[in-house]
Design goal:
Elements (H helix, E strand, L loop, with lengths): L10 E5 L2 E8 L4 E5 L10 H7 L4 E5 L17 H14 L6 E6 H13 L5 E7 L8 H8 L1 H4 L4 H13 L8 H8 L5 H12 L4 H4 L12 E6 L8 H9 L4 E5 L6 H4 L1 H15 L7
Helix pairs in contact: 2-3
Length: 284
């Protein structure tokens, strides 16, 4: 059975043979939310709903993830996703949206801006993949043996998947939260796609970005869970030093899945950031 949150991406964009699921809600200045791996736009759903009173909020699933197509012949690496995001913004006819990105979404949004000429009004990076090294020990193990993991019995795959995802949360995940995160990866197509996207992970895509970060000239804010074991909090300070004028906020009691670990703190921080860069969003 399809998960109801995943089904809320009710529109589609065709791109080089791929079908990109997306949706928008709300009114006001454009705000684009980018997810990471192994997540989907569902992770941003409650935040999109909360921000829709002041923004037109766009959410989308990267190809190979969530409700988007998962054809085995289609590359899903960070290079492809960055190029796609730039074209998706053109499809949406967005000139300079605000962008909030998590995990892989950080590298994707940075590549779209720095390598494919996408323009943003502001950028908020939440526990992002952007600086080397990245990837947990399990991630590295899977990357080196993806063809073996793809053949795991469904029950064993589910157990490994749940254990892997559980490690991204500092406080622990409720059953419904875990289901939202694992749902896209449970059927035969999803299992193959899960290991395929890890197999195609490559630090060269972030290596290309690192020398370009000092070219960023838009308001940039960095939010990080203090207890992130997937991407350690020191990356927040390294990013702040690399991006001119960037600011940081470290959220205590939160791991990589800050959306679930500290939802109120994250929502408050995002609202505060957006109202600082978008006057129209300030409380009336």
């Amino acid at each position: 059975m399809s998960h109801p949150v995943l089904m809320q991406l009710d529109r589609s964009f065709s791109w080089h043979g791929r079908e990109v699921a997306w949706t928008k809600t709300g009114t006001g200045p454009a705000l684009v939310l980018c997810h990471g791996t192994p997540w989907s736009a569902a992770l941003w759903h409650p935040f999109a709903e909360a921000l829709a009173a002041d923004f037109t909020v766009y959410r989308w699933d990267m190809p190979g993830y969530g409700s988007s197509s998962k054809h085995p012949d289609h590359p899903v690496d960070l290079g492809v996703q960055g190029e796609l995001l730039a074209d998706l913004l053109e499809h949406w006819e967005l000139d300079s949206p605000h962008v909030i990105a998590h995990d892989y979404g950080g590298a994707v949004s940075l590549r779209a801006m720095l390598l494919h000429e996408a323009r943003y009004s502001s950028l908020c990076l939440v526990d992002v993949v952007a600086l080397r090294p990245w990837g947990s020990p399990f991630f590295t193990l899977v990357k080196e043996n993806a063809h073996v993991f793809a053949q795991l019995p469904a029950s064993v795959h589910r157990g490994a998947l749940e254990a892997y995802i559980a490690g991204a949360s500092h406080r622990g995940l409720r059953e419904d939260e875990m289901h939202t995160l694992i749902a896209p990866w449970l059927d035969e197509e999803g299992q193959a796609a899960f290991y395929r996207q890890i197999a195609q992970a490559d630090e060269r895509f972030t290596a290309e970005l690192e020398p370009l970060l000092d070219r960023i000239d838009i308001p940039t804010h960095i939010v990080w869970g203090a207890d992130d074991t997937w991407i350690p909090v020191d990356r927040a300070e390294r990013l702040r030093q690399a991006i001119p004028g960037a600011t940081t906020k470290i959220v205590s009691g939160a791991g990589h899945l800050i959306h679930y670990d500290a939802p109120v703190a994250l929502a408050t921080e995002l609202r505060s950031w957006l109202t600082s860069v978008e006057p129209a969003a300030r409380p009336r």
